[in-house]
Amino acid sequence: MLYRVHFFPGFCLLVLGLGIQFQIVRLLAERSWVRLAAGFSTVILVLGYLLEFHRVERLFPAWWATWIECAALVGTLCLAGCYLAILLWRKAPEFRPARRGLLKAAAAGLAIAPVAAACFGIVKRDRFRISEVSIPIPNLPKDLDGLRMVQVTDIHLSPFLSEADFARAVDMANETRAHLALVTGDLISRRGDPLDACLGQLARLRADAGVLGCLGNHEVYAEAEDYVTSAGRRIGIEFLRGEAKQLRFGAATINFAGVDYQRFQTHYLVGAERLIVPGGVNVLLSHNPDVFPVAALKGYDLTIAGHTHGGQVDVEILHQHLNVARYFTPYVRGLYRAGNSSVYVSTGIGTIGVPIRLGAPPEVSLIRLCAI
What we know:
By secondary structure, the chain is an alpha/beta fold. It has 11 helices and 14 strands.
């Protein structure tokens, strides 16, 4: 319920940003420019939160909405850095000169760290790579052993990703010469983003057995599900929406089932058991990977997903990965197994919220099936 009303993370970030800002204004109340800056910051923070709601989002062009939300997120991080810097700076006079200099240097570092990290993440956001993974499938027929599927997901063609950059990712996918291409949702970020341009680039995907796909949550937000389905059909991409398609390779058949985005913490994959071919190899295309335990119970050998962006900003501390995606699912990035079933989660291509990638590089995934 909290997720549906945008309580987390949007509302929490709003409260955090306004709370930190209040403390900064309280500490620097004697400076008139601080109150003026705080007023401007408040407008950005509140707008950034309200833009999560479609009724407000529709009042702004996509370009403005995207960058206002970005400014609100980056602004919250900068406010946190500035607040910690102010606290350290004020503590400095209490210490000896040598320690005072160290504290002032630390304070300056805290103030600029969010900006430096953002700049580094912006540079890394379009450094696409090919990630290869071999997935063992019990009782895999001989003619499916070594089957290669290239996955393109979470494109988010928007002000954060140009069509030219996405074209490079499509070229990389084609260079794998995979047997099958898969598109697993989130072509754009919001209504008004260049959906037709994204479909035009996806039309260039080449694979011997064609292109299959499923839809993501941002197709839902943009109310573009039917359009993407019909336009995809015209360009040779079959988006499976509660449907299954069997493909034959040699003497073997593999079954691909696809579902629309499964809303967070609802009853997952209702009726998806009807799409399974008993005794066959069954692959589920689902944008969000948190359906995996249910898919495994229903009998799917492999689930292929995206959605998480690998956390997009992932920080490793003492071998523990900290990122926002872990709030939603334990399946954040890479290959996970449960019994004889597997799920593979790609970090995807684009970004959402901020045009930054840290610790979760963008990727085109090459998935290879292998017998065990």
